[in-house]
Amino acid sequence: MNFEYDNDNIFAKILRGEIPCIKVFEDEHTLAFMDIMPQKPGHTLVIPKESATTIYDLSDEACLSCMKTVKIVGKAIEKAMQSEGSTIFQLNGVFAGQSVPHFHFHVFPGPPVDLKDHAVELEDVEKLKLIANKIVACI
Ligand code: AMP
Fold it and tell me: Which of 32, 45, 91, 100 has the most CB within a 10 Å radius?
């Protein structure tokens, strides 16, 4: 079951510039930034600027814009983290484990193994910035 879009969710605040993020890419329709509780080094989020909670609420146009950004960022993550592959996933609804009610893709290097727990442990901001710089350099 979907939940109502909440304009005060943390990603809406990031989009409005009310709270900071460690940005790796931005275009007219999307924003990509480091996950502050990464499950693996290089864990990055891609969000649409459109207000939507799940993939089912998102317009086809915004979905396509996100996929384009996921491809740009995912390729850069593979290069920056020296990984031959990457994992892309996204969760829809509380029951599926979605914790932030603004649509997003997760992207990280390599397979979905040896992962830290989802959205649990805050990473050191300076470490995240170093990784972000490497990713940005590969875009
Ligand atoms: P989900 O559970 O699929 O909704 O994922 C939300 C993700 O957002 C989790 O991986 C969190 O670690 C991450 N997250 C939560 N707050 C922030 C934030 N302020 N900046 C960056 N990532 C965040």
Answer: 32
